Amino acid sequence: MNIDELGLSTTVVGSFPLQNTQINMERAIEDQINIGIDFPCYPQLVSMISQFLTPLSQLIPELEQKDGKFILTDDFKIPDEPIALEYGEFVLNYLQNHPNSYDMISGTKACLTGPFTLASEITLQGNISEGLKTMLFKEPKAIMVDWIVEKFSKIMKNIGKAYNDMGFNIISMDEPILGLIVGRKVMFHSRDFVIETLNRAISEIKDVSSIHVCGQLNPNLRDILLDTEVNILDHEFQSNTSNYDIFKKTHFKEVDKYLGFGALETKIKPKRDGTLSDYVESISTIQKTIQKGIDIVGRENLIVKPDCGFQPLRDSFEENFAYEIVIRKLNNMILALKSFE
Questions:
Q1: Both ends of the chain: CA-CA distance in Å?
Q2: Could you tell me the pTM of the whole model?
Q3: Are 209 and 164 in contact (CB under 8 A)?
Q4: Could you give the CA distance from residue 86 to residue 84 in angstroms, rounded to a whole number?
Q5: How is domain 3-259 classified at the architecture level of CATH?
Q6: From edge to edge, which strands make up the β-sheet containing 122-124?
Q7: How far is CA 30 from CA 94, 266, 313, 320, in A?
């Protein structure tokens, strides 16, 4: 894939408001392709935390899953083989069984969870937790310890390599926790450590790497991400409109840097007697939104996608209604883009 030709291409963040079944996986990937998403992502129908920590807890004796929590009690050995590859294998099998789909897409995307976010969900107990102050969290967390975060970056590097070897074109690391630990200063770590850790995690991605950080950004976090080797910086803009003021075209003067631009709102609250039209942006509204993104960084540097994942809609709406919201949003996004061709 030619990275210089990504401008105004489309993708999704990953999650959908469907129960985790084979039928729903097929439904979500098929709908992405038929709607016209350039880089469909494997449908993420499970928690982005348990997706990786649950299989790791089965391989690492010191990492235990208990009562909905992940607990680390001691140093551990990095597993020899990458885990959680079944999602990528599903996409490859689907495309193999539907060869006409190759002609309808530009490539494929995989979504992984970054080392900082995974480490933020691991509680430390025993000697490994001694001396740690419980800043930000109520309990000592693995994210507070450099060497633990470093090990998880190596684990994710191995998984990224496996997805790269499968042929995925865009591989994204979800790192929402960075929006909390990076302000004017970086909590727990140095600026250089964050950059080195992210670079290590994406180092085996040879096509296009991406990082998704939702929430409100700040100039320090922006500059840290721009200083990494990540190709796509993927953020929310509809639920965090202040992010419009964070980026300028000069930030993307490098040919291998793109802005993953959230053009659809994904944090949606139910309205009394609300209908689909109450929750789905019109084509004209999305056209104006995309134009704002183009005005900021240029069409050649813009990748259009929803703000974030859609899985939270499952907690607010009946499943079929939630999914219909998603499909209509994505369809209108593709139709809106046609005016920029």
A1: 20
A2: 0.95
A3: no
A4: 6
A5: Alpha-Beta Barrel (3.20)
A6: 63-66, 69-72, 122-124
A7: 9, 21, 20, 16
Cα torsion 134, 139, 140, 143: sign: negative
* Domain regions of the chain by residue span: 3-259
What is the pairing mode between strands 109-113 and 170-174?
Answer: parallel
Measured CA to CA in angstroms, residue 240 lies from 63, 185, 312 at distances of 35, 21, 17
Q: CA 185 → CA 44, 124, 131, 142, 219, distances in Å?
A: 32, 24, 21, 19, 11
Closest C-alpha to 108, from 91, 94, 96, 93: 91
Tokens of 298: 């240029």
Q: pLDDT tens digits for 11-68?
A: 999 999 999 999 999 999 999 999 999 999 999 999 999 999 999 999 999 999 999 8
